[in-house]
Amino acid sequence: MVSCGGVTEEKRATDSLQAYVQNYLDNYKADPRERVAFLGGGWVKEYFEVDPSSKKVKVEDSDSPSYPFIGQLDFQMVRHYTAFHHQRESALTDNTFTQSEVTPHRHNYIYQDGKWTPLSDTDRDDSAP
Fold this sequence. Notes:
CATH architecture: Roll
Distance between the termini: 29 Å
Order of helices and strands: EEHEEEHEE
Largest sheet: 5 strands, antiparallel
Number of strands: 7
Shape: elongated
CATH topology: Nuclear Transport Factor 2, Chain: A
Radius of gyration: 19 Å
Strand order of the largest sheet: 3-4-5-6-7
Strand content: over 45%
Structural class: alpha+beta
CATH class: Alpha Beta
């Protein structure tokens, strides 16, 4: 690994991925994506939050000559939602979130030219921890 002032490229890449994903996850605190949606049982109001204790970030060497590292973020997304309503308008005014559902998410990244780029997002990935 190339070293600059005692810090390896891998360490810089790992630190920058940690900051990148933390910014992404923190965005859900500022904007929990609250909305009204129609689910199988009717209309609900829902919002999303990340379980911060579920965050796992991994950086590994890549075999590709185009990018030296690959990164992976695994986390649990929690969807909170209200009771089911027959009318969209009723769900819109309901602010009592009585139910929740947890879904594992996995995001993959490549490190190229000193920055991380999302490679793909895989929602509901059963292999995610």
